[in-house]
């Protein structure tokens, strides 16, 4: 059976996709920023804490990493308000979920980076009389960052793609826009071709930018 | 509340069986397709290498959800009619295949070139080199990440609920629709997914440790 591609309707509704892409990026940036804070704090705490704290942090990380994101999204948006007295928009709810989700992945990335910092560097820091705080900020974290940058880039990219799950609670991001056009115009193949291209271009542009940062960082040290 | 959930358990168990069935199909099909395409990527002629590279980078560059919708809504539009179950399996298999290709490339790439050259020097054919020299060694590198990656198939399978397939995720939502016990049921669902995936990631870690004695 023949299928004739016709992109006219896609361009007519392109604002749905363009606005969706911007919202996807916004969701990703905010969630990743919060996730970085969670990840850094917990990772630094983890490597210096006793057994009990480690177990709790590990439990958080393992739980989030082993449950589908869509279930977490439902749980926070539909489940949580039934037991605690809070009300939030779908968008806020998704940002909260993706932040906790990215936090768990980033703890893992940062923790393995911190543990890979050579012992000699810390001893050297101690030898020149740096305080523990100075050793953390000037020795441990910069070295850790350099070690983890490649893994970090990949995690960012996959979190950007994960924003598509927000469509299941009707957050009008890119995948939601695609579905809207799918159901309202039936130019199905066209809309998913365009959306695929948009995700690919954005994703690989992001990755390229992060690789540039990596290279610069490596040269600086 | 507990009574209602207990009443729904057989229904949830059926959904869970569908989740496992989808995951199993996806894992097996993607293993076969991924290993073949991975070998094509490492040893194939340039056009084949390019084709596999573009396939893998495209699939890995888009969200699974977009892939699922593309396959589910797109195939009938071009005249290919698949049951929603098989459309979902196909989409998830494409996603997993791209992963398997990369695991295989990484595992085979970690085998020193000398191994291949030595095998060539004693006159082994290409198939013999793969079967007796490269694969047995690459297997140890391939297995731990691959098992860990099975969790991605199980987690990804929760998205098929959006196509109206009654997997565990969809079963949970349906029971919530009738009972309004959202929180206990989502937590129950999370625990079930967690147990399956955590067991897989523990197995992966254990194997990795077991194989770690092997030196380069």
TrEMBL record, chain A:
One of its GO terms (cellular component) is ATP-binding cassette (ABC) transporter complex. The keyword Cell membrane applies. It is found in: Cell inner membrane; Cell membrane. Keywords: Amino-acid transport, Cell membrane, Membrane, Transmembrane, Transmembrane helix, Transport. The chain crosses the membrane at residues 20-47, 59-80, 191-210. InterPro entries: AA_ABC_transptr_permease_3TM (IPR010065), ArtM/GltK/GlnP/TcyL/YhdX-like (IPR043429), MetI-like (IPR000515), MetI-like_sf (IPR035906). It is a multi-pass membrane protein. SUPFAM superfamilies: MetI-like. Residues 21-210 form the ABC transmembrane type-1 domain. PANTHER family: L-CYSTINE TRANSPORT SYSTEM PERMEASE PROTEIN TCYL (PTHR30614:SF0), MEMBRANE COMPONENT OF AMINO ACID ABC TRANSPORTER (PTHR30614). Belongs to the binding-protein-dependent transport system permease family. HisMQ subfamily. This is Amino acid ABC transporter permease.
Automatic annotation (TrEMBL), chain B:
Belongs to the binding-protein-dependent transport system permease family. HisMQ subfamily. The chain crosses the membrane at residues 20-43, 64-82, 183-203. One of its GO terms (biological process) is amino acid transport. Keywords: Amino-acid transport, Cell membrane, Membrane, Transmembrane, Transmembrane helix, Transport. Its main location: membrane. This is Glutamine ABC transporter permease. Pfam families: BPD_transp_1 (PF00528). Gene3D superfamilies: MetI-like. It comes from Mesorhizobium wenxiniae. It is a multi-pass membrane protein. The keyword Transmembrane applies. GO terms for molecular function: transmembrane transporter activity. GO terms for cellular component: ATP-binding cassette (ABC) transporter complex. CDD domains: TM_PBP2. InterPro entries: AA_ABC_transptr_permease_3TM, ArtM/GltK/GlnP/TcyL/YhdX-like, MetI-like, MetI-like_sf. Residues 16-204 form the ABC transmembrane type-1 domain. It is found in: Cell inner membrane; Cell membrane. It comes from the Bacteria.
């Amino acid at each position: 059976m023949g299928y004739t591609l016709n992109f006219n309707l896609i361009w007519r509704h392109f604002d749905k996709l363009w606005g969706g892409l911007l919202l996807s990026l916004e969701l990703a940036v905010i969630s990743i920023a919060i996730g970085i804070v969670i990840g850094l704090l917990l990772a630094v705490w983890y490597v210096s804490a006793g057994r009990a704290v480690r177990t709790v942090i590990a439990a958080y990380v393992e739980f989030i990493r082993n449950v589908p994101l869509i279930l977490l999204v439902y749980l926070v948006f539909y489940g949580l308000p039934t037991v605690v007295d809070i009300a939030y928009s779908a968008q806020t709810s998704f940002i909260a979920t993706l932040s906790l989700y990215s936090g768990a992945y980033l703890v893992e990335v940062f923790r393995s980076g911190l543990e890979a910092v050579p012992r000699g560097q810390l001893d050297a820091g101690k030898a020149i009389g740096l305080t523990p705080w100075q050793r953390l900020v000037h020795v441990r974290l910069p070295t850790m960052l350099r070690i983890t940058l490649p893994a970090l880039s990949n995690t960012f990219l996959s979190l950007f793609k994960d924003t598509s799950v927000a469509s299941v609670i009707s957050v009008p991001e890119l995948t939601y826009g695609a579905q809207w056009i799918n159901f309202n115009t039936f130019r199905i193949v066209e809309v998913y071709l365009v959306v695929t291209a948009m995700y690919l271009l954005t994703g690989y542009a992001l990755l390229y930018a992060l690789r540039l940062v990596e290279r610069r960082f490596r040269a600086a040290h | 509340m507990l009574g209602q959930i207990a009443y729904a358990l057989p229904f949830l168990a059926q959904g869970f069986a569908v989740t496992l069935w989808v995951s199993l199909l996806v894992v097996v099909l993607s293993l076969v397709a991924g290993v073949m395409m991975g070998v094509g990527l490492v040893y194939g002629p340039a056009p084949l290498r390019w084709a596999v590279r573009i396939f893998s980078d495209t699939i890995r560059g888009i969200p699974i959800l977009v892939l699922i919708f593309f396959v589910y809504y797109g195939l009938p539009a071009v005249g290919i009619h698949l049951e929603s179950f098989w459309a979902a399996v196909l989409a998830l298999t494409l996603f997993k295949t791209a992963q398997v290709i990369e695991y295989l490339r990484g595992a085979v790439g970690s085998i020193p070139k000398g191994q291949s050259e030595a095998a060539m020097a004693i006159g082994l054919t290409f198939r013999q080199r793969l079967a007796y020299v490269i694969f047995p060694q690459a297997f140890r590198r391939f297995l731990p990440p691959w098992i860990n990656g099975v969790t991605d198939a199980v987690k990804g399978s929760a998205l098929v609920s959006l196509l109206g397939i009654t997997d565990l995720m969809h079963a949970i939502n349906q029971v919530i629709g009738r009972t309004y016990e959202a929180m206990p049921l989502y937590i129950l669902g999370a625990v079930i997914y967690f147990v399956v995936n955590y067991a897989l990631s523990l197995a992966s870690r254990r194997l990795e440790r077991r194989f770690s004695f092997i030196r380069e």
